[in-house]
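Appendix B. Extra example for self-study. Work through it before the problem class; the solution is given directly after the inputs so you can check yourself.
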Amino acid sequence: MFISRLRVLPVFLVIALLAFCLPRRIGAQENPYIVAYDHYLEEPGSLEIEYFSTFGTQRASNDFHAFWMEFEYGATAWWTTEFYVDAQSTFGDSTVFTGVRFENRFRLLKREHFINPVLYLEYENKRGTDKLLKEDEGHDVESDYAPSNARLGQEHDRELEFKLLLSGTHQGWNFVQNTLAAKNLSNHPWEFGYAIAASRPLALKASGKRCSFCEQNFIAGAELYGGLGDRHSFGLHETSHYFAPVVAWNLPSDWTLRLSAGFGLNDNSHRFLLRWGVSREIPGFGSMVGRLFGNHR
Amino acid sequence: MRGYVRTLTVTSVLLSVSIALGQKEKPTYKYHKDALVYAELAKAPQKARAKRNPFEKDPDAIAAGRNLWEQHCTECHGDSAEGGRKGPSLLVEQVQSSEPGTIFWILTNGVVWRGMPVWSKLPEPERWQLVSYLKSLGVAETIPAAVPAPKPPSHPATESSLPHR
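Solution. Structure tokens for the complete assembly:
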């Protein structure tokens, strides 16, 4: 599983570039969150291709750059399904594929309410080298990531993850609370985690002109996330926590750029996590695939 | 390595199934042949109907609404709201004669089980700007081919689908 960085990163970037070269146009209105989820699902039939990077500092070992591709498809207006492929480079060590994830989100209520629940189910098949920090759970602490890739790669995890996503939007503000419960399919206890976030567009009114730098194209907010221990020792003891201001720039040309600077809140956390991502939505992807297989409706 | 191949196969199959289901749910025919497509308008509560569009007299709202329309709505409802593969025409009497508050309510809540997502992620002023644009379009002179002629009044669903005026 150890591959040259020169071979892995271009694969991710080529897929991302292919997505960005597609000619269809749709205006994205994506939230700025990297870890938290709101209750808005992918539009039915649309595929969103996303590339994300996380640069993380590491005490007593080498810093790292983890990156992943997400393929997010709106199966229906109440069901979004997502597939991830992820990898990481540890500086002065090696670049490795770290695993795959398959995620589903189900909207539970028919209409919009003050709080809107969404059920999240995910299956992860990953190596111990996984450094995405896409969620923080159980007793995940910085020192877990310190060993070399060769040593971490010996660990292989299959995990089921459940989340209850609660989210609501009022006066332009979106508020999010996610509760996480994860179960390693080997003999490990249930682990728990949380994420809280809020965001708001810089302007609530759209401009009459198409523009890239209009205030309404920017959404700014913050995320707070961390672990809550496991079934045997629930709580904040030996857990890591992060606070991260986030911003998204929704360009009229379909692109969405996200940036997040995360700060560890205790000694068990990485001191700094810099994340950025770029995404592009392909509307009507389901119809395109359907036509490919002879569905000419 | 075999584990990864297996996982990739399983996820590919599941993705294909979801795409196929997405296709199955595609509302083109079901919606366009069914007057119930506009029935959701009648479900808007009185409080929502009574809401006034704060941009009613703002001439810029239509231009802004058009921009928003092009960004978010054309994929399903067509470039000029004439209806598309996934969404019905909005240039029909049922929609155009609805109160602005009713259209705003539909935008906010979506028609989730029929494929229209909720659009509350657009801030409230933007949703009203969209309403301004939609209301500026008026009823199409020729009814798009995809939209059926209204059913006889004896049909209970047709009656309930007409919005209150």
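Self-check: The helical segments of chain A are 5-21, 149-152, 285-292. If your reasoning did not lead you there, revisit section 3.
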